[in-house]
Design a protein that fits this description.
434 Repressor (Amino-terminal Domain), 17% strand, Endonuclease, Chain A, single chain, 41% helix, alpha+beta, 254 residues, 8-stranded mixed sheet, 11 helices
């Protein structure tokens, strides 16, 4: 456990004219909790680290260097990497995932980035994610993006289930337009798939954000699992195998 005061967090708050009480109010936690993060150097749960980072406009890794890889870091629900759990955190809705977490996830990839969605329109609209993908492609990271085929009967079915009809196919078309500048990058591959999508998968090496799907609800309303592979776990490997199966049957996008 870290025992030194967290001067990085103290300075970041001061530079933005915020007090620990202000941050506590935003995060809906006790102000004493914030004081412990600063004065006692306590490391927050991942959901709080990313929420603080987004609020302060900095990377979580800058405030808590190495915390995301700490083997003894406590996890929501009382689990930790030390007990072999692959679950880093659980968010009740995709919209509750801190925006900085998506960018941090992809920024830390050194070998592989993968996205399996129908449209993932929110991601295609994020210029920060675009910059990260270009940078990672230039560093030799393999990047594969799977979007639903707008003409697929499964896409149409999903649109009907969510009550948006043809808007689902239109969202995919919009995502393709938003990705236009990346589609000319040789290291970034795009394919269209025609599968029933049980989960959307966002991969950075052996770390995943898995957006579960609920019948009758938009993906943004469904829970998200933050997973990280462990030596004796199988959750991440199963999701990665699923990704590979969809990729193998998908059609390359010209």
């Amino acid at each position: 456990m870290v025992t030194e005061p967290n001067e990085r967090l103290r300075v970041a708050l001061r530079e933005r004219g915020l007090t620990p009480q202000d941050l506590a109010h935003t995060l809906h936690v006790d102000a004493k909790t914030i004081e412990r993060w600063i004065g006692a150097g306590r490391i927050p749960y991942p959901r709080h680290r990313y929420a603080v980072a987004e609020q302060l406009g900095v990377a979580a890794e800058d405030l808590w260097p190495g915390a995301s890889r700490s083997a003894a870091l406590p996890r929501p629900g009382g689990t930790s990497d030390a007990d072999g759990s692959e679950v880093v955190g659980i968010y009740p809705h995709r919209w509750a995932v801190p925006g900085d977490l998506w960018r941090t996830l992809f920024s830390e990839a050194s070998e592989e980035i993968g996205v399996l969605v129908y449209s993932g329109l929110f991601l295609s609209e994020d210029s920060g994610v675009h910059r990260i993908l270009r940078t990672k492609a230039g560093q030799g990271v393999r990047i594969r993006i799977l979007l639903g085929d707008p003409a697929s009967e499964h896409v149409a079915r999903r649109g009907a289930d969510e009550g948006v009809g043809g808007a689902m196919a239109a969202k995919i078309e919009n995502a393709l337009v938003m990705y236009a500048s990346l589609r000319g990058t040789e290291a970034i591959q795009f394919r269209l798939h025609d599968t029933i999508l049980y989960n959307s998968i966002y991969r950075a090496d052996n770390e995943l954000l898995v957006n579960t799907h609920l019948y009758g609800f938009a993906a943004a309303q469904a829970p998200v699992l933050h997973l990280r592979a462990t030596a004796d776990g199988s959750m991440v490997s199963n999701y990665l195998d699923s990704f590979e199966r969809v990729w193998a049957d998908a059609v390359p996008l010209e």
